[in-house]
Amino acid sequence: MTEVNRPPGIGGWTRFVTARPRLSLLVALVLTALAVLVGSGVADRLGSGGWEDPHAGSTYATKALEREFPASQPNLLLLVDAGGASVDDPAVAAEAKRLVERLAGEKGVTGVGSYWQTKSPSLRAQDGHEALIAARITGDEKEAGETLDRIAPAFRGTHGPVEVGVGGPVAVRHEMQTIIQEDLLRAEMIALPVTLVLLVMVFGSAVAALLPLGIGIVAILGTNAVLRGLTEFTDVSVFAMNLTTALGLGLAIDYALFIVRRFREELATGGDPLTAVGTTLRTAGRTVLFSALTVAVSLAAMLLFPQYFLRSFAYAGIAVVLLAAAAALILLPAALILLGHRVNSLDLRRLFRRGRRSPEPDGASAAPEGRAWTRTANLVMRRAPFFALGTTAVLVLLGLPFLGVKFGTADDRQLPSSAESRVVQQHIRDGFPGSPGGGLEVLTEGRATQAQYADYKERIAALPGVVRVDGPLVKGEHAYFTVQPKGEAVDEQAQRLVDDLRAARAPFDTEVTGAAAVLVDSKDAIAERLPLAAAFIAVVTLLLVFLLTGSVLIPVQAVVLNALSLTAMFGAVVWVFQDGHLSGLLGFTSPGSIETTLPVLMFCVAFGLSMDYGVFLLSRIKEEYDTTGDHDQSVRHGLQRTGGLITAAAVILAVVMVAIGTSRVTNTKMLGLGIALAVLMDAMIVRSLLVPAVMRLTGRATWWAPGPLRRFHQRFGLSEGEPAVAPVTESAQEREKVSARG
């Protein structure tokens, strides 16, 4: 194909795709096959932790205690149940000692201790029928999981007069990782067929419906390969796999919907496939690229936090967004060129039309859907003050429960009630004094006398909220005390005790660790970096939306209205998952708090998805405004042309997120259902009602910008199209050059 025959809008970056579509698809097929090979087994290399700040004092103390006092940090607990007998019964004690000896002889296990050795009351249940064997499995999460898989079958179950259950942090994490993998596979089996049915309903054509699904699968497989590569250099959370599936399907379908819809519109006007692809890439293609950048920016903000749980979602999210956009802008145009008018083939809706003539392929101007959105736009803009104030009030009201949020840590209650490790931990929580494993450890460094240790012990034992202080256990210049707090391991009283312990005077260096200390440090790390992350998202979003629209007011509106669209999600998270409403219906146990990192994660993901839909709407409004100069008509036209598309995309993404939300792990359930709610609220309330109402109120001032910024936008800005003119004049050629530079 020569340069002369290339239609307008086919630039250098798409030249290879449009000139050699078969070769492009073949290369993509080969790369996808390689991604399958590279990404296979990625889930087995992912971790299930990552909530702690790696630079915090509690993390330093944990590592020091693991190194100097392995028995001080048990991560494996064997619950020995003597049935109706006492744990001090000679037969029970003899069997327990045999289990201790066997466990101490296992490779990768250290620091083995038990009630029968120490007679510690904290290791014996209050009813006297259960007691604990504690140990530490060494190595990282992957090594610890492999060791647990190897030894657990030998200890789990009946041993003479006792029944043994396996618990402890390492068992909780390992079981959580296994359940997440199983649930993710089930979610994919639910989401894929339902998504295909919805796409057929949107497009009518089975051929057109398969294209977005194919783009999503390519994005997911490619991201799995990226995550597999990252595991060689850094820790990656298993929870990130859920985001890979959700965004891989959701965003790929969004982008493909937008491009295929515009391609079919161009075909309906009489254009040939190559020209239609060129126009589509020049208009919808630019919007897709721009949208991908805005979503990636929101997700990139999580890289500013130290917890690898959050950073993992940034890795997965950025990779899947960019791969989805690349597939939609490279593979999809190649497929559309080869398909041409056959993209409308296999119109399954004909089965329900009883021989009636099919509507236009674009489905916008003549279809009832387009007329319905026109009526909606007219109604909203006639009563703009009512819709602007009413929707704002409703969204604020829905978000009020978040004012009562309480932050905590993820524990065994994330798991289903039937999970073995949760059953064991619940027995310990309910039946043992002081919640073994939930205490605080105070590490001391520096030589000290026994008198100094005794004086310090008395000082911290007198602090409010302390039940008991054990220790010290001394090894060279290191020693540690175990402090048992009142109440729950991570409640507000335990968190205050962490601050008191750190403020207590001592003749040596001290640091505090334990579940409450990790939570305090995690909250501090998030609070310290949250303003920077919010500023990063806001500034870059303002810049990108300005480059798209050339307006000063629209970027501010976009940021404010996007944030407002998330209020329902945050209110629902507290009302449902913290306060426990609907817990029976949804099948989870509320711990009375929200894991500290989840609101940050949900904000970044949901804000990015809201911007995705916002860009789709604003780009079409801007295109019409550039053509006609009529502000009100541009808003009507934008809502008419994208309202159905955005709603369909939101429903499909919500289906994917609800499938993720069927997980048996509470945090994953919260993530899936919360973002599904945010997406639907944004598409059906904010984009359909609030945005057009606000733009009607601001009028032509919506497009104002000072002279220097206007000139900056003319030189560097992006747009979804150029003003329509009949003959190609010199000014039109200049606009083409400006657009090409953008």
Provide a descriptive summary of the structure in words:
- This protein is α+β, with helices and mostly antiparallel strands.
- The chain contains 25 helices and 11 strands.
- The strands form 3 sheets. A 5-stranded antiparallel β-sheet has the order 2-3-1-5-4, with helices on both faces. Strands 8-9-7-10 form a 4-stranded antiparallel β-sheet, sandwiched between helices. Strands 6-11 form a two-stranded parallel ribbon.
- Strand 8 and strand 9 form a beta hairpin.
- Helix 7 packs antiparallel against helix 8, helix 7 packs parallel to helix 9 and helix 18 packs antiparallel against helix 23.
- The radius of gyration is 30 Å and the shape is elongated.
- It starts with 11 loop residues before the first helix and ends with a helix.
- The N terminus and C terminus are likely disordered.
Residue runs with pLDDT of under 50 for 5 or more positions: 1-10, 355-367, 720-742
Number of separate helices: 25
Structural Rg: 30 Å
Number of strands: 11
Biggest sheet overview: 5 strands, antiparallel
